[in-house]
Design goal:
With 370 residues, this protein is an alpha+beta fold. It folds into two domains: 32-182, Probable inorganic polyphosphate/atp-NAD kinase, domain 1 (Rossmann fold), CATH 3.40.50; 200-344, Tumour Suppressor Smad4, CATH 2.60.200.40. Helices cover 23% and strands 25% of the residues. The chain is built from eight helices and 15 strands. It has helices spanning 72-79, 92-104, 116-127, 150-153, 159-172, 205-213, 226-240, 304-313; strands spanning 56-60, 85-88, 109-113, 137-140, 178-188, 196-198, 200-204, 250-256, 262-272, 292-298, 326-331, 334-338, 341-344, 347-350, 356-368. A hairpin with a 2-residue loop joins strand 13 (341-344) and strand 14. The chain is elongated and about 60 Å long. The two termini are 31 Å apart.
């Protein structure tokens, strides 16, 4: 989880290239100007021509799960690349300051050496147009406890090995890596607070699972997909046993793409632009062309034990019907009224009073393997 306190010192090179024309705050619309798709703006994948060297900024969260054991190897690698800017920050304020520094020094590629919450913080800053005149290319390293986002749109392997690979690519933008355009979620709460940006929205049992996960059930500090998998198993047992004390039904009023809202009780719902969740789960079977995957399971769902394997693979079987409490669509917008919390990339938020609106933004450019 990210903390809101003053953070560490600036690590800055002695000289830096000039910032983008118009200054770091001239990009007023954040990610909204990308809505026409990657082929219709100058900053698509073709902007990064082969053979062109990119200015790199590396943002490290030292409190992310994968970084808690030390950053010696990361610092040693960066010492060999003096042109790359590096900031170590663990607070929202510190990360914002780091991104301001990167924008002012002409950074085109931001490497995020942190967990899903760190990626969420960076996407929100960029998405609200607070910093960059031109949204940067992003490279996500698997440095968090779960690292669900980097496992889908990031660079695999240890954070040190992935960082070396990214820095070598940035030197000449060769064909060892590729650029993947992917939409992200824009989440607008009913208050006048700035929008949130991320890639995985969840409510109901998903929030309960996150609370269990962060309640001290991981004393060994295990990383990767094992602990989320064990937490999922624990929540599934409670669901199958209809233990509403651990997994209370979520009363929702949901409108998809402007359709009349439907009111029902759900076990959980999720909205995502990720293709792969942890453990390779792909719980989508909608056939529409929308950029957002929406899936919900009703509190009174039938034949859940028979449905679970197919649901995890996104392969609809004859039991996965709305009549049995299973819903999955690809949509452009979701308006959701509910009581309680929702999560965005592992961070918990109060849904407040009134509809939460989830729509697409971007696409964002991610650096990935072929």
């Amino acid at each position: 989880m990210l903390e809101k306190v003053i953070s560490g010192p600036v690590q800055k090179p002695e000289s830096a290239p000039s910032c983008h024309e118009g200054g770091p705050n001239s990009y007023e619309n954040g990610l909204s100007s990308y809505e026409d798709g990657p082929d219709n703006y100058e900053d698509g994948p073709g902007h990064y021509e082969h053979g062109r060297r990119l200015q790199v900024g590396v943002l490290t969260n030292p409190r992310s799960g994968g970084n808690k054991k030390g950053l010696g190897e990361i610092r040693s690698i960066l010492a060999q690349w003096p042109d790359a800017l590096h900031r170590e920050e663990f607070t929202l304020e510190g990360m914002h300051e780091a991104l301001v520094e990167f924008a002012g020094n002409g950074v085109e590629l931001v490497v995020i050496n942190g967990g899903d919450g760190t990626v969420h913080a960076v996407l929100t800053t960029i998405g609200n147009g607070e910093v960059f005149a031109r949204p940067p290319l992003l490279a996500l390293l698997c440095a968090g406890t779960t690292s669900m986002l980097p496992r889908d749109v990031g660079v695999p392997g240890s954070s040190a090995a992935a960082l070396s690979r990214v820095l070598r690519w940035a030197k000449a933008t060769d064909q060892n890596l590729t650029i993947l355009p992917r939409h992200v979620l824009r989440v607008q709460r009913p208050s006048d607070q700035p929008a949130l940006f991320g890639m995985f929205f969840g409510a109901g049992a998903i929030c309960q699972g996150i609370k269990v996960f962060h309640s001290g059930v991981n004393p060994m500090g295990w990383r990767g997909e094992l602990m989320p998998g064990l937490t999922l198993l624990r929540m599934l047992l409670a669901i199958l046993c209809r233990d509403h004390s651990k997994v209370p039904p979520l009363l929702t009023r949901t409108s998809l793409d402007g359709q009349p809202p439907e009111e029902r009780e759900d076990l959980f719902l999720l909205i995502s632009t990720l293709d792969r969740l942890f453990l390779g789960i792909h719980p989508y079977w909608g056939r529409e062309n929308g950029p957002l995957h929406y899936t919900a399971v009703g509190a009174d769902s039938k034949r859940l034990l028979r449905v679970l394997p197919a649901l995890a693979r996104g392969r609809k079987n004859r039991f996965m019907t709305p009549a049995n409490g299973y819903f999955s669509h690809n949509v452009h917008e979701v308006q959701l009224e509910m009581d309680g919390d929702f999560t965005l990339d592992g961070e918990l938020y109060d849904a407040e009073q009134g509809p939460v609106t989830i729509g697409p933004a971007g696409p964002v450019m991610f650096l990935c393997p072929y």
